[in-house]
Hints:
The chain is α+β, with helices and mostly antiparallel strands and 608 residues long. It contains 15 helices and 17 strands. The strands form four sheets. It has a five-stranded antiparallel sheet with strand order 2-1-5-4-3. A five-stranded antiparallel sheet has the order 7-6-10-9-8, with helices on both faces. A hairpin with a 5-residue loop joins strand 4 and strand 5 (173-185). Helix 1 runs antiparallel to helix 9 (279-325) and helix 10 packs antiparallel against helix 11. The two termini are 51 Å apart. The model is unreliable at 250-260, 506-513 and 603-608 (pLDDT under 50).
Amino acid sequence: xxxxxxxxxxxxxxxxxxxxxxxxxxxxxxxxxxxxxxxxxxxxxxxxxxxxxxxxxxxxxxxxxxxxxxxxxxxxxxxxxxxxxxxxxxxxxxxxxxxxxxxxxxxxxxxxxxxxxxxxxxxxxxxxxxxxxxxxxxxxxxxxxxxxxxxxxxxxxxxxxxxxxxxxxxxxxxxxxxxxxxxxxxxxxxxxxxxxxxxxxxxxxxxxxxxxxxxxxxxxxxxxxxxxxxxxxxxxxxxxxxxxxxxxxxxxxxxxxxxxxxxxxxxxxxxxxxxxxxxxxxxxxxxxxxxxxxxxxxxxxxxxxxxxxxxxxxxxxxxxxxxxxxxxxxxxxxxxxxxxxxxxxxxxxxxxxxxxxxxxxxxxxxxxxxxxxxxxxxxxxxxxxxxxxxxxxxxxxxxxxxxxxxxxxxxxxxxxxxxxxxxxxxxxxxxxxxxxxxxxxxxxxxxxxxxxxxxxxxxxxxxxxxxxxxxxxxxxxxxxxxxxxxxxxxxxxxxxxxxxxxxxxxxxxxxxxxxxxxxxxxxxxxxxxxxxxxxxxxxxxxxxxxxxxxxxxxxxxxxxxxxxxxxxxxxxxxxxxxxxxxxxxxxxxxxxxxxxxxxxxxxxxxxx
Length: 608
């Protein structure tokens, strides 16, 4: 799989690695904190729900215990026993109404005789006498056992507590029963809600009969409470956690009467939405903190990455400048004690030390090369100057002799003149090689420059035919025409001397064209021109071929060995190349390759 280009940069790799690490760590921390806070809130909600259920259970037991105790006390009142013994409903009814008023919160007071015939009914609830007398708790009370029973009501759930009414001594006779009923409706559920802080629902069997919740949510509560465990139920836009428990009775009530098919229950509900609402600002704060942390970490990681890569960038930039200019004096700035990377600082210091060492070695090598060149130059100059000086000295001795004739004097003067010219040439070539070469760039016709060079050599009395085989239609090149002409003249003069050293011209080219020297041009595929100087001389000694362009190396007696060295310096400055090879089919070929434009984007005019 290819690496994305963004990862090619060390800065980007360090930055992305640090940023991703912080993002993952911050994100994981935020998720973990949010999960822990939410879990704690859920645990607190369930704990509070259990506590509310326990409060409701205790409150229900207390309510049942209270009504049971009051019912037993009233059932033991002599006045009630005497009225029940009469079996006369009009006599019992006022007492039932009075006792119902005394039992605050009761919804029903019912008195029956020993045959379960209703003698009195009092309270706000409208109850069918026959159905009321058939309540299981009434049957149980007439059997001598206090009991309670439940029955559905339009407004809620009715709980009836029944106790026996006994008359006479031992053994006592059961004369009837007293039943006290209280309605578990929405008002009672609201009282329980105020007490516990939780919503309450009362039910019988599998149906809710009264609740503090809207009635449209009762069906969902019915389905959820059947599991017997905590469950989550939705009501509108809110969520509730509920806990269903059986509705407890006081031990003195004797439990539900036998035969009761449906069991009462109470459901305690806590609003999960409201309980977890406080998590919204916390989660927002966590998210904002995480985002700010990530942004800060991103900026810091980028800054840290830059402290590592900025010095590397400076090192790379200086290295490129040194490679482009060769200026070993360029140094990488090193700032001790800064925030820069210590390894990069060490690398910069090492590079500076390396360039100093290289510069020192180059200076020493250049010094040695200058001394060596000076030695070779001194040897050549001494050798080249000694012969002309000896000839001049001999000619001067001839001129001092009075008996020398006119012919001898004229010959001595010519010798002096020739040797002075030779000395001047030696000095000029040494100076040309030693001094820096400057160029003047112009558009030039390479064919014209070659033609002028051939004409100049022939005009100087070469005595050897030179043929110009110039390619037609060559485009102009931007070069220093005068410097190029100097090189070509030097090469043609060398060719003339080589042909003279070989004697009579020979070879196919000489026989075909009648010229032992040829200068030809041809277009270069990459732009520019190729110039070839060919001669039908004796060719190149293989042992000397590799040293032809070395300064002061020559195979010709009387030569300085600087001509080809100067020619190569000029061609290199023009951006070209020069090479010597065996001729085709014989002799020697010198190839010069020149570009169409100056090297390094040199100026079009002026000195460079």
